[in-house]
Amino acid sequence: MLKTTFFFLFILLGFVFLPFTGITQEATKLYEGLPPGNKTTENKEKEVVTDAGRRALVNVTVPDLTFYKAQGNVKSNAAVIICPGGGYHRLSIFDGGEDVAQAFAKAGVNAFVLKYRTNTENSFRSFEPLPLMDLKRAYQMVKENAFTNEIDTNKIGVIGFSAGGHLAAMSFTPINPIQFSFNILVYPVISFKDEYVSPKLQSRKILLGDQVSEDKKRAYSPELFIAENHPPSFLIHAMDDKTSLVENSLVYYQQLVAKKIPAQLLVYQSGGHGFALHNKVQDEFWMPSVIKWLQLNKIIPN
């Protein structure tokens, strides 16, 4: 009777813990105590549904990082930090964060979802430097825990969506550079120069305010700062994107080519903006192409 009881207890515990083995860990705050730049310890974060029907977070004042460990038979020691989009005033952290992390993990790539701070009224001394500060801190945390998480510090990359793409691309500029090993940008906002800013775009205004000098526009236009040591890059965009014009990816790609940086550009004829993993208009998933590209560049094994 006792053996039978222990047997059923073992089976029960197995079912309880099975779904959670290795797939994700608890979110870890980027900073202990009051995050630098915050005025208050108040957490104003809440979930909303956008006009497009997407779940998102607004008023993010306490940034954190969530780890999705590589799964499957062929695991790599590479890692990617995911920067969701949302125009710097919200985070599309579910389809453009958690879903993406799970897809990378299933493909054998360690993934980290970054919940960086968004512009929130009366919460920060100055919002402008905070998203990039959060990304740099996330990179430091991944490096600090690389041995424990079986990650090669020479294979830590970044992927950004929309405004998160701008954030990712800014990590290669002089403002606050980060030594990422690869770069993936999905329908990114890149340039803050007037000719590449759509009338629908709010990212520049949200990050830098209403009155932006020409010098500031240039400083926040990463296509102007492609260096010889820029890492391999993969860009994804749709021609009919009305929020982040496709020219953002085109001008970035042209600069990569000019500097002979290994790069690949995937431009869809249709798809609009904010399609996350799945371009529903063309019924295409881009993740298989990204995985092949990572293999081509010897970032993950075949």
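(ticket continues) Second input and output from the same batch:
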Amino acid sequence: MSQIRATRNRLARIGALVAASALLLTGCQTASPHGSGGAEIAADLPPLTELTGIADPTAWEGPSTAIIGGPSLAKVADNPAQQLPAKVVSHDQTGDVEVTIDDTSRMLAISITGTIAEFVHAYGLADHLVGRDISTQLPGYEDLPVVTKQGHSIDAEGVIALNPSLILTDGSIGPTDVVLQLRDAGIRVVTVTRAKTPEQTYTLAREVAAALGVDELADTLIEQLDQAIAAKEAEIAALAPSDPALRPRVAFLYVRGTAGIYYLFGEGSGIDTIIDSLGAIDVADEIGWVGEKPMTDEALIALNPDIIMVMTKGLESAGGVDGLIEAQPSIALTNAGKHRRIIDVEDALILAGGTRIPDVLDGLARAIYAPDSLPEKA
């Protein structure tokens, strides 16, 4: 009880920092729940192996929404024995810090994508979770209290009320200073790697396993995930046209509203590895685009993608496909714009990494190579 009283005394200071930093998060990616409905719809769709791909993905007319189910990867354990205390390295913004973990009985695993909680679940320790971020929708754990606001802002008072013994985060939930100040309030806080690519995902898998005291399970999970990704890539290759000339040219644009500003995602963003796994041509890679940077109208027209991928909430904020094309006249001059070939995918999942990689690839492959198998999009 004394620890709880002490931590509550720090709420005013932490709350003030939340308010002061909130503006810095305006415009960040807003995550959305992905478990209610999406997996249900996906369960009704036939597997990729039963689909017949369209003859020419570069000439298809009309938009699509990628339907992503899962998580489909099975748990590798169920309430495994833990080796605690565990000494791990927290990758704080100010530098690495060694943290000793001796209690995981009341955990928060928070990120903008829900990826960390999905790893906790995969290791069979989801029963230790006492709260969740807004993106985490693990089956059976939907009623856990939500400790994030608008997908990216920590509710410090809500966290302390849950009296967690451990917080695992990847820096995508903030403000970062607030999360780390929870450590000053007596809570163990460990910052792990933010996973966008398979390689980062495997690093994250090991870091989460180490924090949970189940290091030996990481190899099993990584092997299963690696096999699942390879199997999904093989299914996609069989679905895609065999003629290299029919490989669609794809651009991923980050759009918000109708201000006329958009970002092209390139190398290191995580989108590059997704497009590669889909067997498509990454137009950003062709020009050596690195990271996420503003795109000019002239450059986009010159790249001339056949397909433009966007986040669902970004498309909604632009007024749908028609609103996006009207707000961004350069898009209308590309093959994607002329064919209204816009694919939207849920914000929290497109860069989730983690155990959802095979599910994301499955959903995007349907939208690219078998859009006629999906519900019609207005």
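Agent notes: The radius of gyration is 21 Å. The chain has a mean pLDDT of 87. Closing as not reproducible unless the customer responds.
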